């Protein structure tokens, strides 16, 4: 059990590591892509939510393993377009923080939601994350390159979550259930801290 928990903590740390390295995104021709790629990995709230989407998709299994992350990325791009166009979406920051709590709790409780409900949940929170990415696009950044950057970074974080789910699955039985609850619980508690302005 200790080695399984250690694997989870290492995976979460690896997923969060790019946030520390993203302080200097690319400039020049790559500015749009670099800024876009850096945005999702520059905040703990985005990182935790994206990783939990991947774990949630793994827990559901079947078609959900690719439909849940794909839906998130596509709906997020729509939210990004709204943000870039200056179209207001209320409670964006609150929605992002709540998404960490909700997704973490879903993973911790191993909620077996119907696929349509799972897609609805991730689609809803994706709008908030996407809007934040789009609204914070630098004025001199190329829109398409910026969008490609945050979409690819998000997909990679989803991939990290799927990998974490695989590690949890390898633990199996009670160990796997404990590790999943631990990972989801860590994310949910972090989300509460973000909500409270502590992180």
From TrEMBL:
Signal sequence range: 1-23
Recorded superkingdom: Bacteria
Protein name as annotated: Urease accessory protein
Ranges that cross the membrane: 39-58, 65-85, 91-108, 115-132, 144-166, 178-198
Naturally occurring in which organism (per UniProt): Rhizobium esperanzae
Annotated keywords: Membrane, Signal, Transmembrane, Transmembrane helix
Pfam families per UniProt: HupE_UreJ
Record-linked InterPro entries: HupE_UreJ
UniProt KW Hydrolase keyword: no
